[in-house]
Design a protein that fits this description.
single chain; 493 residues; alpha/beta; Aldehyde Dehydrogenase, Chain A, domain 2; 2 domains; seven-stranded mixed sheet; 16 helices; 21 strands; binds nicotinamide-adenine-dinucleotide
Length: 493
């Protein structure tokens, strides 16, 4: 791993791509409008990014449709698509430092997380999915003898992908890898808070041999570029990662336009449940600290509600505070720093507002609290006790390093508390009792459950939630289902 001085020196050499990538080339937005990208650690200006709107989205969708119909990618043999995507994965690996720096500078996450999680996960997702695409077979249905029933999978057409800022490269990759591997054309609208890595990635894709128009990136705001994409009559599928509120809007846009399918990976308020029969209180406390403080708490699966069995509450809380104290916010380019700034001042203000409201509603701040304005948008790791299910801080996704802690006595009570949420993304349970582990895994209303851990993941397992957390799954072979249509062909013999 490089030193702070080396990362800082390298960061000064990056030339950001900041224009829309449409049909194989960079373009200014039709309106000529831009918006600034600001480094949240220093408040330095990084780039003026093209602000796309309906006219740009129309151009991108037209290019995507043209190449889809031409078949240069959509009808290319899967083994040939695989070759291009594997080359792209190699290029991404060769530019790992550049991509790590780009997202760190653009949205503030630590360079150690970028190098340890986001970049390797993105490469793996791309490589794994590319490798899978020429190993998937169609089916023959058990019809009567006088017919042959073929069930095949076809690419859907034009995929509109809309992604958030918290894992800019990785979230884009979880959409792009399966959508492209399946033969679709894609128009990606990255978050206005972190667009730079997606633009550079599109350029690399062209270098790898992806035909012009297959991947287009239209940076811009949600209510302009995002809405235009979601309302577009020639977009077949929307693949969205972001908040539950915006997910609902997208479903409305689909209904108002062409009934395009909307795949949603949305917000969370995930419970961490620690039973007194857990094997190691200290390991559970470390896991709980990681669950809320990784990436400044700007994580969809953040373990933001902690339920600890009352019999071990005191020693557990001592251990939790000890582990949480190691997350001292600092320069995200320093490889020893575990917590960077929030993505922008608005997100820091949101976190502060939730902490203030929690206190008004009766919670106790036992660590951290409201952050004073300073250079850079740095939060404080915050532990709230005395919280109850009716409090706003327990009900709503804060998307920051704020943990609500409450106790419980019985397994039944723990499950009732854990499931008492509009969200259902993930859950983490700490117990050494095998029967209990299986029992509560079934009981929990969430798309993912970790037993004696939090956040484990690779491309082999699906990622996604239920209830207000969404309806789709990223990663694994199941992700390909979102980007392909079943076709039934009856052949009379
Ligand atoms: P957001 O919903 O504000 O924005 C997400 C994307 O939607 C952005 O690109 C934004 O520009 C766009 N958008 C906003 N309004 C729009 C509109 N009217 N029409 C079309 N597009 C619009 O979310 P965010 O703040 O970028 O990200 C944080 C959220 O993402 C959190 O809720 C987090 O839990 C969630 N998230 C979920 C997952 C998951 O896999 N389930 C992963 C990461 C983040």
């Amino acid at each position: 791993m490089r030193t702070l001085a080396e990362w800082t020196a390298l960061s000064e050499t990056i030339e950001f791509r900041s224009q829309a990538w449409i049909d194989g080339a960079f373009h200014s937005s039709v309106s000529g409008e831009t918006f600034p990208s600001i480094n949240p650690a220093t408040e330095a200006h990084l780039a003026d990014v093209s602000s796309c709107d309906t006219a740009d989205v129309d151009r991108a969708v037209a290019a995507a449709r043209r190449v889809f119909k031409a078949g240069d990618w959509s009808r290319r043999a899967p083994a040939q698509r695989k070759k291009v995507l594997l080359k792209l994965a190699d290029l991404l690996e060769q530019h790992a430092d550049e991509f790590a720096l780009t997202d760190t500078l653009d949205m503030g996450k630590t360079i150690s997380e970028m190098m340890g999680i986001d970049v390797p996960d993105s490469i793996d997702c791309l490589r794994w999915t590319a490798e899978s695409i020429d190993k998937i077979y169609g089916e023959i249905a058990p019809t009567k003898a006088s017919t042959l029933g073929l069930i095949t999978r076809e690419p859907v057409g034009v995929v509109g992908a809309i992604t958030p800022w918290n894992y800019p490269l990785m979230m884009a990759m979880w959409k792009l890898a399966p959508a492209l591997a399946a033969g679709n054309s894609v128009v990606l609208k990255p978050s206005e808070k972190a667009s730079l890595s997606a633009l550079r990635f599109a350029e690399l894709a062209a270098e790898a041999g992806l035909p012009d128009g297959v991947l287009n990136v239209v940076p811009g705001f949600g209510h302009t570029a995002g809405k235009a994409l979601a309302l577009h009559m020639d977009v077949d599928v929307l693949a969205f990662t972001g908040s539950t509120r915006v997910a609902g809007m997208l479903m409305g846009y689909a209904g108002q336009s062409n009934l395009k399918r909307v795949w949603i990976e949305a917000g969370g308020k995930s419970p961490v449940v620690v039973f007194d029969d857990c094997e190691d209180i200290d390991a559970a406390a470390l896991g709980a600290a990681q669950a809320i403080l990784t990436n400044q708490g700007e994580v969809c699966i953040a373990g933001s509600r902690l339920y600890v069995q009352n019999s071990i509450r005191e020693p557990f809380m001592e251990a939790l505070k000890r582990h949480a104290a190691k997350y001292v916010p600092g320069n995200p380019l320093d490889p020893s720093v575990k917590m960077g700034p929030m993505v922008d001042r608005a997100q820091l203000d949101t976190v502060n507002r939730y902490i203030g409201l929690a206190v008004e509603e009766g919670a106790d701040v036992v660590m951290g609290g409201i952050s004073e304005p300073a250079s850079g948008f740095y939060p404080q790791p915050t532990l709230l006790t005395g919280t109850s299910q009716s409090m706003t801080c327990v009900k709503e996704e804060i998307f920051g390093p704020v943990l609500c802690v409450a106790g419980f006595d019985t397994e039944e009570e723990a499950m009732r508390l854990a499931n008492d949420s509009i969200y259902g993304l993930a859950a983490s349970v700490w117990t050494a009792n095998l029967s209990r582990a299986h029992r509560v895994s079934r009981e929990l209303e969430s798309g993912m459950v970790w037993i004696n851990g939090w956040g484990e993941g690779d491309t082999t397992m699906p990622f996604g939630g239920v209830k207000g957390s969404g309806n789709g799954r990223d990663k694994s072979l199941h992700a390909l289902e979102k980007y392909s249509e079943l076709k039934s062909v009856w052949i009379s013999l």
